[in-house]
Design brief:
With 436 residues, the chain is α/β, with parallel strands linked by helices. The chain is built from 13 helices and 19 strands. β14 (277-280), α9 (282-288) and β15 form a beta-alpha-beta unit. The model has no long low-confidence stretch (mean pLDDT 96).
């Protein structure tokens, strides 16, 4: 391993508030860090040189909240019962799918999902996993897929009590085991996952809080995605979801709070003060008809909630849905949220994933975009929101190693991955039929 240089392209230092200038990036392949970057940098003798004329060299794209276990759901039959509410959508569809997952289908879901992500220029994923019939070892199984791809990620298991008295404790143990075994892993880290709190009993929630405190791990939880989260929580536990978390000191700086569509203004202000990350999932919210989050305040980032891995489509959807009603967010807000997704994942590694700068991790997405109008740092948001889509992705690297080069995945055999995933999907659908 030596020095790798990428030259002749336009370096976007950050997806939001950055500079855009023609230049060169030099990377230490051993450490996976950027040595130097800029318009005054040139390749040196002995560098492994890659010319990207006219391409945009940008910080690697990150999905701030994902459910890779849903990757095999594409094209499956509709549930036998038609859901009439958000809770019924969970009961008739997603809670059937996750119970049908076993070790094989968990692995192939991850492989298929990562394959799609790699083609879209994704270099990192913050994942939230569920497989109630296969809890112990599920995160290690997913990690095996991440390692094959050389994809950066944070993994957690979605703790819940909805399927039986022992399930919550098993989920906590899985989060603990994975986090402890991956604290020094170069590309993977653990968090403490939790389903919406209305499916979590007090004793289990106490256990989640203890684990977060003991290992200083962030909580990754769905919160007030739908109004039913509040009503179910009050009916079953006598207080709101936010109150149940707050009394256990579970809303701490760096926690990952997903959706937040039905937060009150007071609750949102409190979360701003706590400096948690808020994850917006525009297309999932639209699909589930739960409403739109209030994006005008808060430390918002972008996820896909398992719809797919297309974070650039998510940014565009965030923009257009945001202008449909309520007070629209700032014009370039979706790019600020996209950048913040990089910060979410970077916080697990104490790495700067949101800027291309000396000392930053060499997680990079390269786009082959030939603009029909002048392109600059000042109007970059307009190009992304009105034209630059994921078709422009040409190459990507993680920690200085090519993941995608000239639109071909470098770390796995894409055809083989997809053939196995199709077979696994058939098995999954057969199991789902028996569970409905």
């Amino acid at each position: 391993m030596g020095i790798l240089s990428i030259n002749d392209g336009y370096i976007l230092s950050s997806w939001h508030g950055g500079t855009l200038e023609k230049g060169c990036i030099r990377i230490d392949e051993k450490t996976g860090l950027i040595i130097e970057t800029g318009s005054d940098v040139t390749p040196q003798d002995g560098d492994r040189q890659y010319s990207m004329p006219g391409n945009i060299i940008a910080p690697g794209l990150v999905v701030g909240h994902h459910h890779l276990y849903s990757a095999l759901a594409r094209g499956m039959n509709a549930p036998k019962k038609t859901p009439s509410s958000f809770v019924e959508t969970l009961q008739y569809l997603w809670w059937v799918l996750d119970r049908a997952l076993d070790e094989k289908t968990v692995y192939h879901s991850a492989m298929a999902g990562l394959c799609g992500a790699a083609k879209l220029g994704i270099t990192g994923i913050v994942d939230h996993h569920a497989s109630p019939s296969f809890i112990s070892g599920s995160l290690k199984t997913m990690a095996g897929a991440f390692e094959k791809f050389h994809m950066r990620g944070s993994l957690c298991y979605e703790v819940t009590d909805r399927n039986g008295p022992d399930e919550g404790a098993q989920g906590i143990r899985e989060n603990r085991d994975f986090a402890l075994s991956h604290m020094k892993h170069p590309l993977l880290r653990g968090a403490v996952g939790a389903h919406a709190s209305f499916t979590i009993k007090d004793k289990t929630l106490d256990g989640i809080a203890s684990l977060c405190s003991e290992l200083d791990l962030p909580l990754h939880i769905h919160l007030l995605e739908d109004a039913s989260d509040r009503t179910e929580s009050i009916n079953n536990f006598g207080m709101s979801p936010v109150a149940r978390l707050q009394i256990r000191n579970l809303l701490r700086k760096g926690d990952i709070i997903v959706h937040g569509v039905h937060l009150t203004d007071h609750e949102l202000s409190m979360l701003v003060d706590k400096d948690v990350y808020l994850l917006h999932n525009t297309r999932s919210n639209m699909n589930n008809r739960v409403g739109r989050a209030f994006l005008e305040k808060g430390n918002w980032a972008l996820g896909t909630d398992g719809i797919d891995s297309d974070i650039l489509s998510e940014a565009r959807s965030c923009f257009f849905r945001g202008r449909e009603d309520m007070v629209p967010p700032a014009f370039d807000a979706p790019l600020a949220f996209l950048k913040n997704s990089q910060n979410v994942l970077g916080s697990f590694f104490n790495e700067n994933l949101s800027e291309l700068a000396a000392g930053s991790a060499a997680d990079i997405t390269i786009l082959d975009y030939n603009p029909p109008t002048p392109l600059s740092a000042g109007n970059f948001a307009g190009h992304v929101l009105f034209g630059m889509e994921s078709w422009a992705v040409r190459s990507s690297m993680v920690a200085g190693k090519w993941l995608l080069y000239d639109r071909k995945i470098q770390t796995v055999d894409e055809m083989e991955v997809m053939a196995h995933s199709r077979e696994a999907a058939k098995t999954l659908y057969e199991k789902m039929e028996k569970l409905q």
